[in-house]
Write a sequence for this structure.
């Protein structure tokens, strides 16, 4: 269940299964109300098929729970707006990511990810660790069998942003970036500082190509984010991706520059 941290996904599935039983509904009857086949319901309950946002909403509909499970997921795990993107990310054959300010979540080390999440000082230590576990868990998609091709473009300033108190964390992060970038399905490219003005300055975004060859996008902001699936909007993101990708350094040059950054700190 790659969409949610496994303990949370297992908990939600268990609660749905118990609620279905308490309502006296067979998997077939539940499936009719939720919009899924009985075999699909069985696979989700048996944890051989991923728990998705569509299934969660279907469960609320079938059980007449007025969005209870959807709110539960939003409270305990990933925000509801993000779940459709996690569905896309989990099944994608290709992924593209542009980040002008941070290392992409799929490439973060635990130490770097924890430091980033802790920037939100409203979060408790437990909430920080839950979010970190979710983020690290998502990274399995890059090393699984038939992993998607993943190309990331990161602003050079991201790998240089390290005060003396963060250099050990950033050195470990850069080491992970260079190690991951040696994998045949992963490419990391730096957008050099000398490219001072470019279309990517308007913010980070990601793109996923689904098995049916359709592309969807995702953008984040200070209050959350949005998943993009309208053809015109996806075309705009694709055009912006091509622009920042063309401005970025080649793969080998990017790796060399990252290593030079770490060397300059010693």
């Amino acid at each position: 269940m790659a969409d949610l941290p496994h303990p949370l996904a297992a908990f939600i599935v268990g609660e749905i299964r118990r609620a279905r039983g308490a309502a006296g509904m067979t998997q077939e009857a539940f499936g009719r109300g939720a919009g899924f086949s009985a075999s699909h319901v069985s696979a989700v309950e048996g944890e051989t098929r991923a728990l998705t946002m569509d299934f969660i909403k279907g469960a609320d509909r079938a059980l007449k729970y007025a969005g209870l499970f959807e709110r539960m997921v939003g409270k305990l795990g990933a925000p509801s707006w993000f779940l459709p993107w996690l569905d896309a990310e989990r099944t994608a054959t290709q992924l593209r990511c542009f980040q002008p300010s941070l290392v992409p979540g799929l490439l973060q080390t635990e130490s770097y990810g924890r430091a980033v999440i802790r920037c939100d000082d409203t979060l408790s230590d437990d909430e920080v660790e839950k979010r970190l576990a979710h983020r690290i868990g998502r990274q399995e998609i890059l090393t699984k069998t038939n992993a998607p091709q993943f190309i990331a473009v990161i602003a050079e300033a991201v790998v240089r942003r390290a005060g003396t108190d963060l250099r050990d964390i950033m050195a470990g992060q850069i080491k992970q970036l260079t190690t991951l970038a040696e994998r045949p399905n992963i490419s990391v490219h730096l957008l050099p500082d000398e490219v001072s003005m470019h279309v990517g300055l308007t913010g980070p975004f990601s793109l996923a190509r689904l098995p049916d060859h359709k592309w969807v996008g995702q953008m984040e902001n200070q209050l959350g984010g949005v998943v993009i699936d309208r053809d015109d909007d996806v075309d705009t993101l694709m055009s912006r991706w091509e622009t920042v990708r063309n401005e970025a350094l080649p793969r080998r040059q990017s790796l060399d520059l990252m290593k030079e950054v770490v060397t300059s700190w010693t």
